[in-house]
Structures are given as C-alpha cells and as structure tokens.
Design a protein that fits this description.
With 296 residues, the protein is mainly beta. It is 14% helix and 44% strand. It has one domain. Strands 4, 5, 7, 8, 10, 11, 13, 16, 17 and 18 form a 10-stranded mixed beta sheet that branches. An 8-stranded mixed beta sheet has the order 1-3-2-6-9-12-14-15, with no helix packed on it. The radius of gyration is 19 Å and the shape is globular. The model is unreliable at 200-205 (pLDDT under 50).
C-alpha cells in the first residue's frame, strides 16, 4: 500500500515526476537552521522514503539515507527522486543497501533524479552499488542544476547479479545518463551504456574481463588541473593497495572538476578508490573527516 508523508516547511512545488506515475517518489529540501542542516520540506509516496537524519561529524552537514521497502526494481517500474540543497547548506545522501534490478519482462525500470544546489551548497551522493540481475534492463536519468560556487560529488558502482548458471553479465542493459548545468549552462553530459549481448558472455566486451564499473563526477570551481593531477596520483596509489586489480581513468571536465571511471573485480576495491577521492575533497575544501557510514 502506498504511503504518503509531508512535513511542513518550505513549500514544495509541483512534482516533476507526476506524468510518470512513479512506483516510488521522494522529494527532499535541505536548508540551514540555527547552524545545522535540516530537512525544510519532505515528501514521499510508494516505495521510497528516507530514514531519520544523522550527523556524522561535528560539521553542520546532514546525512539522509534513502530506503526502498519494496526490496528492488521490477519491470516497467518508475522512480523519481528530487533533492534541493539550499544556499550554504550541505547534504550527504546515501542508500540503506544495494539497489537491485530484477527481471524486467514488462519493460525497463527507470529512475529519474533531479538535483538542485544553491549558492555555496554541497551535495555528496554516495549510494551503495547497483546490482543488475538476469534479464534486467535499467535506465537512470540524472539532471543536476547547480550554482557556480556549489560543490558536487556523485558516485555509482555497477555490478552483475547472480544467475542460475553462475554466468556473469546476464542482464540486458544498463544506461546511466547524467547532465550537469552550472548557472543555467550545460557543462557536462556523461552517458554510460553497458549492453552485454550474447557475444559478451565469454568476452565481456570492452570490460576486459573486469566485472565492476565505478563512476564518479566531482564538480567544484576549486578543482584545477594541478588538483586533478594530485587526485589522479591518489587514485592510482589507492588502486595499487587493493587486493584485486583496479583500472582507473580520470579526466578533467569542461567546468572545473573531474570524471572518474574504474574497472575492477570487487565492490570493495571500487569503493576504496572512489571514496578515497571523495574524502580528499572533503578534507581539502571543508576540513571534514573521512566518510564513515557505519552500515555494516
């Protein structure tokens, strides 16, 4: 049964997902009150909600955890997430557990996410891995609108799920499209499509026998080429310390920032590299300690 919850505060505008009739919808506004970041408005219905907020360090940053009580995404499911971080506020957004996409014979599952960052706002999106199972098809569309002095870190880890015969990459396709606009101007379009196909069950195509794909976008006006090079060296060093091989690529984005891709054989090794970069940015820009989400 669908559930609906509203909290009074700043008024939420019309839902950007109303035409999709989402299975789950979450809308969250975060602002600073009395020196602490809090939810100033919140709405959820269906199979999405958030846990009570946590504060992981002595900064004002609030941490919210997205929960899907339904357990996973199924065929033709539609999900919508809208998050707005007001000027001068800071939000760490994560998930309670992995996002699981099961068989989708009725059509691909779709998640649409809209993120808005005001002047000087900070948003770190650090979800658990996305697991695609046999005969799964999933599309994720993320639109980000941010002020020029806002700071964004966005991560994703893609992993193949279990199949009865033990063969990897039995899902049909994964498509992740991310647009970043700064002060109304499109500065970055990131498009990842993994479509194994029958031939790749043995060759694994361009993944070169790797099984896990990691992605990160860090957009911040303070990331210049010198810092980007330092982040590259840090990523290589962390990758070299892992028990399993991690292949890392880092490129500078059109607007000050970096785009990171990793290929590996484990979620832990992938997360070590991505979180290592995120933690370095936290330390340099805001003097915050490393992320410890304490989920396990």
């Amino acid at each position: 049964m669908a559930t609906r919850t509203r909290y009074t505060g700043s008024q939420l505008g019309p839902s950007p997902f109303a035409g999709d009739k989402p299975v789950g919808e979450l809308r969250l506004q975060v602002g600073r009150r009395a020196g602490k970041d809090i939810a100033t408005a919140q709405y959820h219905q269906g199979a999405l909600r958030v846990l009570r907020p946590h504060y992981l360090d002595d900064s004002a940053q609030v941490c919210y955890t997205i929960v899907n009580p339904g357990g996973g995404y199924l065929g033709a499911d539609r999900y919508g997430i809208e998050v707005e971080v007001a000027a001068g506020s800071s939000l760490l957004l994560t998930t309670q557990s992995a996002t699981k996409v099961y068989r989708t014979p009725q059509g691909e599952a779709i998640q649409r996410m809209v993120l808005r960052l005001g002047a000087g706002a900070v948003l770190e999106y650090l979800p658990d891995q996305l697991i695609a199972y046999r005969q799964a098809s999933y599309r994720q569309e993320t639109s980000i609108e941010m002020a020029a002095d806002a700071s964004l870190v966005l991560c994703e880890v893609l992993t193949p799920g279990w199949s009865p015969d033990g063969t990897l990459f039995r899902y049909e396709r994964l498509r992740l499209r991310t647009e970043v606009s700064v002060d109304g101007e499109l500065v970055l379009l990131d498009n990842l499509r993994v479509e194994p196909g029958a031939d790749s069950l043995d060759s694994l195509l361009f993944l070169q026998d790797y099984t896990h794909v990691g992605m990160m976008l860090a957009v911040d006006a303070r990331i210049d080429r010198e810092l980007a090079e330092q982040l590259r060296e840090l990523a290589y060093r962390i990758a070299g310390d892992q028990r399993s091989t991690v292949h890392v690529g880092i490129s500078v984005t059109g607007f000050p920032g970096v785009a990171v891709r990793t290929l590996s054989h484990s979620t832990e090794a992938t997360n070590a590299v991505l979180l290592g970069i995120a933690n370095e940015l936290r330390r340099r820009f805001r003097g915050q300690q490393s992320v410890n989400l304490r989920k396990y």
